[in-house]
Amino acid sequence: MLKLIKLEWKKNNIGKYIRxxxxxxxxxxxxxxxxxxxxxxxxxxxxxxxxEGMNAISAPIELFTSMSFLIFTSVMLSSFIVSAxxxxxxxxxxxxxxxxxxxxxxxxxxxxxxxxxxxxLTKLAVYLCIFAGSKCMPSSFFIDFNxxxxxxxxxxxxxxxxxxxxxxxxxxxxxxxxxxxxTIVTSFLLIFxxxxxxxxxxxxxxxxxxxxxTALSFLFAFLSIYNAERKxxx
Length: 234
Description:
It is a single chain. The longest helix is centred in the middle third of the chain and has 35 residues, at 100-134. Helix 6 (150-177) crosses helix 8. Strand 1 (197-198) and strand 2 (201-202) form a beta hairpin. The mean pLDDT is 82. This protein is mainly α. It has helices at residues 2-11, 14-37, 58-86, 89-94, 100-134, 150-177, 180-195, 209-225; strands spanning 197-198, 201-202.
């Protein structure tokens, strides 16, 4: 499986995705730093203009990093899998003496592993920027994280895994519709579903929601590959 994952990275030119992920991480660091310390989130009178529950810095960090990498992951899945079906390059892959399910699983794992690592490192970079800035500048947001606490890193890893796994839902729908655009549009809809507030209610604040969402994500991942041996190519 590891060889297949490395083959997928090489075949899809992983270097360009590394470059794009670095650019995305840099932009997120700059934007959230400006949000916290340069007053771009403040009203003209200097008070913070934020929805209820968004006055702590971890809220915008989790929101913007999750939004960015859910879309980024869905774009990669679309390129690695859905486009491969449409461009008929999957025909060649399926001609190898390897089970189709294993090939699809390696493609999904190649994307998942890359984006999980990228999201964890991006979040760490953003939190470190905010932590460093808070030592010498007043923040518009309440600094609500402890970078020296083990639970901080555990939550960061778990939340990153949930967000990246959500892209499997977008992949499944994109494969049904045989469309890369549908995969990406579905990722936007997932963002609205999971991150938006309806009054004081938010799915993101529900403790049970990440568990249910992760279970659904892996169910959709299973559904994406379980019948690969019998169904025709798209």
